[in-house]
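Retro notes (design track)

What went well: tokenization of the new backbones is finally stable.
What didn't: we kept losing track of which sequence belonged to which structure.
Fix going forward: every design gets posted as structure first, then sequence, in one message. First example under the new rule, 124 residues:
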């Protein structure tokens, strides 16, 4: 039983690291009107949101790696992060690759909730 849990955690950790690695690779690209995960020097709201996404993905990956997040907790957090990223994509599509201040505030509130959940789940 313990071996199956260990294997599950390793699979989730590898998947999480691949996801974070992919996001990190995307953030090195610089283009105007860029989408989520892409640095756009002229649009600090997009860059701030993307930086927080990357940070939270790293926190989740660290929780998987050190065993403080269960597979169920990890899946829940990843689903919530994915929902926020999809919302960001939709918002940016409406505004030629940019976020309005109101959209950024909404995303920040959602990220704050997920951030608190990451902490709670890692410390239970």
């Amino acid at each position: 039983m313990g071996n199956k849990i260990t294997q599950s955690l390793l699979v989730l950790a590898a998947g999480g690291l691949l996801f974070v690695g992919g996001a990190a690779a995307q953030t090195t690209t610089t283009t105007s009107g860029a989408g989520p995960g892409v640095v756009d020097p002229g649009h600090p709201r997009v860059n701030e949101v993307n930086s927080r996404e990357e940070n939270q993905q790293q926190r989740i990956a660290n929780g998987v790696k050190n065993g403080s997040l269960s597979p169920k907790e990890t899946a829940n957090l990843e689903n919530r992060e994915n929902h926020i990223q999809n919302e960001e994509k939709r918002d940016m599509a409406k505004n030629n690759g940019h976020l309005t201040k109101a959209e950024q505030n909404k995303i920040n509130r959602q990220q704050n909730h997920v951030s608190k959940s990451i902490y709670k789940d890692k410390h239970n």
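Added context from the reviewer: Helices lie at 2-27, 44-66, 71-94, 101-122.
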